[in-house]
Write a structure and sequence with these properties.
This protein has about 150 residues and is mainly α. It has a domain of about 50 residues. It is built from 7 helices and no strands.
């Protein structure tokens, strides 16, 4: 899946980077000399949250590739240990495989949720009546007749 380019304002980028560096709204507020409310509002914006999430997922052990590689190494070492000692429980290996599968399923679900675009279809019915048919249309026509006083 190709990575989308994040569109983020310079202000949002500054606040997001300060938040990533300092780790708290109060600290960002003090460093940038703006109110905590303003910092909080910026951090609640979709594009700023997305930027922060991308930085978390692309760095350190939060990186999904690093997590997968580390988990694969652990599974491989458990299998090797089991072969060498010829003493192991299947539960240990199954627990690790279940964890690896759960992580992959959660990642797929997250990707599907972020790319799932929901649409809305609005329908307008033009049946020829100026105010529509039904009680509202009848009322409006009665009110708009010449000779009626309001």
């Amino acid at each position: 899946m190709a990575k989308e380019l994040a569109t983020i304002s310079p202000e949002g980028l500054e606040i997001a980077n300060a938040y990533l560096e300092l780790g708290g709204i109060k600290e960002v507020s003090e460093q940038l000399a703006i109110s905590e409310f303003v910092v909080s509002e910026w951090l609640d914006k979709r594009e700023v949250r997305k930027y922060i999430d991308n930085v978390y997922f692309d760095s350190g052990y939060r990186n999904r590739n690093k997590i997968a590689e580390l988990l694969d190494e652990i599974i491989e070492s458990k299998i090797e240990e089991a072969r060498e000692s010829e003493f192991y429980t299947k539960k240990d290996l199954i627990d690790l495989l279940v964890l690896a599968n759960k992580i992959r399923q959660d990642e797929k679900k997250t990707q599907n949720d972020s790319t799932n675009i929901k649409t809305q279809t609005n329908v307008q019915i033009n049946d020829g009546a100026a105010f529509g048919s039904g009680n509202y249309g009848k009322l409006m026509e009665a009110l708009m007749k010449p000779g009626t006083e309001n």
